[in-house]
Amino acid sequence: MARTLAQFTITPDSDGDYTLHLEDDDGETIEFTASFEQLDLVVEAIEEVLDGDEDDVLGADEDADEAEGVEE
After folding, report:
1. What pLDDT does residue 53 have?
2. Among 5, 20, 32, 58, which residue carries the largest CB count within 10 Å?
3. What whole-number distance in Å separates Cα of residue 19 and Cα of residue 21?
4. How far is CA 8 from the centre of its chain?
5. Across-strand partners of 5?
6. What span, in angstroms and rounded, lies between the C-alpha atoms of 25 and 5?
7. pLDDT computed for residue 70 by the predictor
8. Mean pLDDT, contiguous 10-residue spans, the chain (72 residues)
9. How far apart are CA 6 and CA 29, in angstroms?
10. b vs e for 14-48, b when ≥16 Cβ sit within 10 Å of the residue's Cβ?
11. Model pLDDT, residue 56
12. What CA–CA distances, in Å, run from 3 to 7, 13, 24, 30, 33?
């Protein structure tokens, strides 16, 4: 079963890489080392997913506004 992300941090290290700390709801932390290029790919992947979901989210907001009689 997938765990729920509670918080995360990203800190640069002295070698030019970055350390990611991902903490779940139980307080368990997983640590990863990643390069700039790897983090950039993660950002791009997140943006692609969010951009794909944006129409669905905005469409739901517009439907709710229309139901309440709110015009933009």
Report:
1. 87
2. 20
3. 7
4. 10
5. 24
6. 6
7. 60
8. 95 96 97 97 95 79 63 56
9. 10
10. eeeebebebeeeeeeeeeeeeeeeeeeeeeeeeee
11. 78
12. 12, 27, 6, 12, 20
Q: What is the pLDDT of residue 67?
A: 63
Amino acid at 30: I
Distance CA 3, CA 30 (A): 12
Residues found in the chain: 72
Predicted structure pTM score = 0.67
Structure confidence at residue 11 (pLDDT) = 97
H/E run at residue 42? helix 36-68
